TrEMBL record:
Keyword Membrane listed: yes
Residue stretches making up the SLC26A/SulP transporter domain: 17-380
A Pfam cross-reference name: Sulfate_transp
Topological type in the membrane: Multi-pass membrane protein
Subcellular location(s) per record: Membrane
Species, as recorded: Lacimonas salitolerans
Name of the protein described by the UniProt record: SulP family inorganic anion transporter
Transmembrane segments: 21-41, 47-63, 93-110, 122-140, 169-187, 194-212, 242-267, 325-355, 375-403
Amino acid sequence: MKPQILSTLPGYGGRALLADVVAGVTVALVAIPLSIAIAIASGATPAQGLVTAIVAGFLISALGGSRVQIGGPTGAFIVVVHGVIMTHGYDGLILATLMAGGFLVLAALLRAGRLIAYVPDPVVNGFTIGIAVIIASSQIKDALGMRIADLPAEFLPKLAALWEARASIAPQALIITLITGSLIVGLKRLAPRWPGLILAVAAGSGLALWLGGPVETITDRFGPLPAGLPMPRLPEFTTEKMIAVLPSALLIAFLAAIESLLSAMVADRMIQHSHRPNAELMAQGAANLGAALMGGLPATGAIARTATNVNAGGRTPVAGMVHALVVLAVLLLAAPLAGQMALPALAALLILTAWNMAEPQHWRGYMALPRADLALLLVTLILTVLADLAVAIAVGVALGLVLRGARKVRDRRLRDR
């Protein structure tokens, strides 16, 4: 479980440092609007998203088993975090995140990093698409500037409430959403090395200021961002509350393990290197413990930010540590400016994030899967959207294991003939 930074620092020189600093700054400019948007969608405050990017991002890079992994709050947690906050309050989320961190440390000590291979791909794909649907639907209100006092969390009632409030659509918000989304897509294609996310959100926010009208900013809804980190604290907890949040803690730990190890595997292919899965689990555990103690959100490895890091030239964990320090510098020195981001611009960012999470380029391939695998994907997707994340994962994994066992029995019988 040796952290990768201990393997990369011997012989580390000025050229490598310069490349990592450039990559770290680039990733930070991507992480700032994403962390704020994910926190808002989760029912938390923008500051809690930034704290997570700083604390968890630093620990995941410093202690992790991947050379280039970037950690922080991710879209995969939005639904579960929102549900925990609504049911148990923010202290309940902190407790669940602390417990999840402990489970991840235990998983690392038990050398469970390779168990990711036993989760069927259709379950992961169906679950991811389902989360993307939920995230995108949660952003319609801000994307259209709709006035809804209490938007239901459940998918079908949410759609009904949005339809009933259709008369409150603000044209200014829709214009900002469309322009911001177009800029994000255009800059990614035409200038992939530019910090397109922050530039697009800044342009959308500037347009909101120019247009005027009922377009909310971060400061309008949440108040000013704090110019610094909070003091660490433990939440109040009892045995009853720990039992109550246990399913959520297990789900957070599962999601953190799945997403971080998948992200590390993607990064391996990009840099032709192998990560250390148990060291990565240990880092995820430490990151979630640290983020929770600082009042942050659950965290894991972020595939998009990790890919941005690699494409920007980052090759050692120093880049991820620099990214966290740059986010901290923005919080300390430019919090009022960050607070002027327009919510429709952030909604556009999250809707596109959900689209990318769903990986539409693979949908045609999914349709060509064996019927049993396609059915498993669809069952997981539907349960994720309409039922409950924990139910979707439990049912999907159970059905996947049954399917795998049935195939082994069939193959054995064919060999015996």
